[in-house]
Specification:
The complex is a heterodimer of chains A (161) and B (154). With 161 residues, chain A is mainly beta. Chain A has helices at residues 37-46, 52-55, 70-73, and strands spanning 27-34, 90-98, 107-120, 123-133, 139-149. Chain A has a five-stranded antiparallel beta sheet, with no helix packed on it. The radius of gyration of chain A is 18 Å and the shape is elongated. The chains are: A mainly beta (161), B alpha+beta (154).
């Protein structure tokens, strides 16, 4: 008896809006979440980075979140809004601006908006700006995540005189 | 007892960098590097396998996206750069910036090295901001990520 193939992560995204209709400055999503110790531990264990600032205490009080760990927190935001493209998607670029520490156990809100979209070398790029705020509404982290599609670049349009 | 077995160091103990961001570091200074191998087990820990079956940790999911085998999540790859960044700037990672482009896929079993060099220094009030070129390269010397970082000297 053939067993059912488990769903791949990209098959579980919930986005429905076609990327071809994406509009700059539109709201992509808002996620409120608690940074759990388990979230941070997985990153720490995966990279053997047993920094006591993440596991015990930091100069900012309790344990903090590793600087790039927020990449995991907005992992599905983009494709829970936009329909995952048939040609697949690449994580192309990222920017961080660190304002105040993200603390383990605290609640944060991520708000994502489309900042820009452009074509380059056979792919379309989508820049999502993400603001991370704490419960008081204070911004703790600014990010820009750029994804590109398709995975295999399309032939460049013919150059005409 | 006459045993002479060697007592091994814990390979997971925290290792700070030998050199941290100070105002006297010259332009051209190369940061100490950090090298780590990303195995399938490591990727599965990060992804939360088997509850989460992504193309980065599960062969069926990888095949479903046309990959012959899982490749490593860019977020996990970038983590290594973040480790270098915060070890170098310490508490001054706050007020700092980090940006990068992922330019090559990382495969299961690749050993990545995080590296950086001071490319500029600027006064900021009575402090000094250091600007870095940063990158990750694999065991073949191929860059998989290139970027920029900045932060105030300690």
């Amino acid at each position: 008896m053939a067993s059912e193939r488990p769903k791949a992560q990209h098959e579980m995204f919930r986005g429905t809006k076609d990327l071809a209709t994406a509009e700059v400055d539109e709201l992509i999503g808002v996620i409120e979440f608690v940074v759990t110790k388990e979230m941070v531990d997985r990153s720490v264990w995966a990279m053997d980075d047993y920094n006591p600032w993440y596991l015990e205490a930091s100069p900012f009080g309790g344990p903090i979140v590793p600087p790039t760990a927020a990449l995991d927190f907005d992992g599905s935001m983009f494709y829970d809004f936009y329909k995952y493209p048939a040609g697949g998607s690449l994580f192309a670029k990222q920017e961080f601006e660190f304002v105040t520490p993200m603390m383990v156990g605290e609640t944060y809100t991520l708000t994502g908006r489309l900042r820009d979209t452009y074509r380059k070398r056979g792919r379309t790029y989508f820049e999502m700006g993400v603001s991370v705020t704490d419960r008081a509404g204070v911004e703790v982290l600014r990010m820009v995540k750029t994804v590109a599609t398709p995975v295999k670049p399309e032939p460049e349009e013919a150059i005409t005189a | 007892m006459t045993g002479t077995s060697e007592l091994l160091a814990d390979p997971t103990e925290f290792k700070p960098l030998d050199v941290v961001a100070t105002a006297d570091l010259p332009v051209g200074f190369a940061l100490p590097t950090i090298t780590k191998q990303i195995t399938l087990d490591k990727s599965r820990i990060y992804e939360g396998w088997p509850a989460r079956r992504s193309r980065h940790c599960d062969y069926d999911a990888a095949h479903a996206t046309g990959l012959p085998a899982p490749n490593i999540n860019g977020a996990l790859v970038a983590y290594l750069l973040g480790e270098l960044f915060i070890k170098f700037f310490g508490e001054n990672y706050l007020g700092g910036r980090l940006s990068f482009n992922l330019i090559r896929q990382t495969q299961v079993g690749d050993a990545l090295t995080a590296a950086g060099v001071v490319v500029a220094k600027e006064g900021e009030g009575d402090r000094t901001r250091l600007f870095l070129d940063v990158w990750l390269e694999n065991q073949n010397g191929d860059k998989v990520l290139v970027g920029k970082a900045s932060g105030l000297a300690r």
